[in-house]
Predict the 3D structure of the following.
Amino acid sequence: MTLNNTIIETLDLKKWYTISRGIIRRQKSYVKAVDGVSIRIEKGEAVSLVGESGSGKTTLGKLLLLLEEPTDGKILFEGNNIIHNNRKKEFRRKVQMIFQNPYTSFDPRLNMFENITEPLVVHNLVNSYKERFSIAINLLSKVGLNPPEVILSKYPHQLSGGQLQRASIARALSLNPELLVADEPTSMLDASLRIGVLNTLKSLQKEMKLSVLLITHDLAAASYLTSRVYVMYLGKIVECGDTQDIIDHPLHPYTIALMDAVLTTKIRNLGELKIKGELTPNYKDNVCRFSSRCPYANEKCLTQEPKLVELEKGHFVACHYPSY
């Protein structure tokens, strides 16, 4: 892949939230939800962003869609910085999001026909009711919602979680986007429904040559759908590379812990996970953010923040002592 094939890229992207402390002397501190993240997605490529809840994944996804205003850094879409671009409506038509909770992402006052085709009306892409209806029928057929005529007449509360998530995909595809950001698209679904939604995403990605960013905590879903993976922890990318390389040979202790937490079809004696404590945004500057939970942390980890470096071809890791 070459650089000119990149559809979206972030350069040292940051999103800091200000917290004021104290009543008399108001001291400012920051929650660094995204702190100097640089990622790229090529045209037609499926990439995953993995990490536990609170690591900053969803915030990064919202930044990519300009649903959040960055504190600093750049977002390049097809080579152009779109943060201060005056053509944001055109950009938003090309980049769409599948939200995590299908139960709250639809307007309950509108039926599914109105919900799914609303983006077409907002962007003035249809001229008649007949055209809207034809597009809606085609979209529901693509995502496997049948019979589409019946589904379109229903309201969100009349559909199951699996049906709503497929409808979310249909609505995201209504504008024929170039990049799809899927934020935990299966986390609210039963296990029996997850593979169906992932299969739908996978087939549509290949058929439409979509670029996809899958935001997930599930490395199994990442390995099924994506070719490259970024591992995020407390606002930083700690490991990235080809998905299969990272699954077969994780180098960062955090990635290893994520892998240990994945249940496979075989019965595994997992034992106790090696990491300790819970993710917390309270950490000192200039230290490894994972050091308070890492079983291998030593003095260097407590005095120097590791940089993301290439240890193997195409495999990057931010750790002082990787691959234990």
Summary: DSSP finds ten helices and 13 strands in the chain. Residues 191-208 form the longest helix (18 residues). The mean pLDDT is 88. The two ends are 31 Å apart (CA to CA).
